[in-house]
Specification:
- By secondary structure, this protein is an alpha/beta fold.
- The protein has a 5-stranded parallel sheet, with helices on both faces. A 4-stranded antiparallel sheet has the order 6-7-5-8. Strands 2-3 form a two-stranded antiparallel sheet.
- Strand 6 and strand 7 form a beta hairpin.
- The two termini are about 15 Å apart.
- The relative contact order is 0.17.
């Protein structure tokens, strides 16, 4: 029997105007923004939609930089993705499974009924603050692109300094993270070992590395008192790339996630092995759609970021 999974992008997919068309045309999407702004204590509509924001220290407006500031980016992207999800579900499309890359995992848990919109926003607001405050000086991330298998874990382990794999995105694309000098040294070794390219990423810190363990500990403490229900859908964790259903295990893995590798390729392979043959990426951009095409070309992959995308999906599912 055919199975469908909703998948949600992570930080980096955000852009000004995301979900605006759904906000304007779908009452359910607008309700998500209203709930989220109330939970966050600031206007997520303003952060998601405005090119400029009021300057609190002077007259006039300034460019909207909050959209790319981790403590605001995370609740903004979460809200935009959940607003689009509301329109998708209102159109009668429902999933059998859910997963999300890094931040997108909170969207997946909400889609699966494990978290409410308000609780997801409150947690992610704190997650963004913890990650922003934990960022050490001199951290970096670099994407490693290759046309053949390379011993990326072994080379990172043999490199002086702190560097490790942060993301297993798809065949031929992994990301390394850690101290900048160590990341640069490992990238040079990986190129020597046959990698095609090493692309430094414009990020605010060495995410998904042990250097963010402090943020993970704070998040784990916060989650201890957080209500998390058993997912109603098959939910796959970034940390284990396996299904997780027990609330206590979900809490533990969410705490570990910020300083552990994101096993996205393995998560997708797990879902495919579980019978998922159709994936709908929900949110701005098509990063996960592109990854999926490299992971397994036999599966059907669609994306919903605009109302016209939803219309196309409705004609297929």
């Amino acid at each position: 029997m055919s199975k469908l999974a909703f998948i949600f992008p992570g930080q980096g997919a955000q852009k000004i105007g995301m979900a605006r068309e759904f906000y304007d045309s779908c009452p359910e999407s607008r309700a998500v923004f209203e709930l989220a702004s109330e939970a966050a204590g600031f206007s997520l509509e303003e952060i998601c939609f405005s090119e400029t924001l009021p300057d609190e220290s002077a007259a006039g407006d300034i460019p909207n930089e909050k959209i790319n500031q981790t403590r605001y980016t995370q609740p903004a992207l979460l809200t935009a993705s959940l607003a689009i999800l509301a329109a998708v579900e209102n159109a009668g499309i429902h999933a059998d499974a859910a997963a999300g890359l890094s931040l997108g995992e909170y969207c997946a848990l909400t889609a699966a009924g494990a978290l409410s919109v308000s609780d997801a926003v409150k947690i992610v607001c704190q997650r963004g603050i913890y990650m922003e405050e934990a960022v050490p000086v001199g951290g970096a991330m670099t994407a490693i692109l290759s046309r053949k298998p390379i011993p990326i874990e072994e080379i990172c382990a043999a490199t002086e300094g702190q560097v490790s794999v942060a993301n297993y995105n798809c065949p031929g694309q992994q990301v390394i993270s850690g101290e900048k000098d160590a990341v640069d040294r490992a990238a040079a070794k990986l190129l020597e070992a046959g990698a095609a390219r090493a692309v430094p990423l414009v990020v605010s810190g060495p995410f998904h590395s042990p250097m963010l363990s402090g943020a993970g500990e704070k998040l784990a403490a916060l989650l201890c008192g957080q209500e998390i229900r058993r997912p109603e859908l098959l939910f796959v964790s970034n940390v284990t790339a396996k299904a997780v259903s027990e609330p206590d295990e979900i809490r533990s893995l969410l705490g570990k996630q910020v300083c552990s590798p994101v096993r996205w390729q393995q998560s997708m392979e797990y879902l495919i092995a579980a019978g998922v043959d159709t994936f709908v990426e929900i949110g701005p951009g098509q990063t996960l759609t592109n990854f999926a095409k490299k992971i397994d070309r036999s599966v059907k992959v669609m994306h919903v970021g605009m109302p016209e995308d939803l219309e196309r999906v409705l004609r297929v599912v």
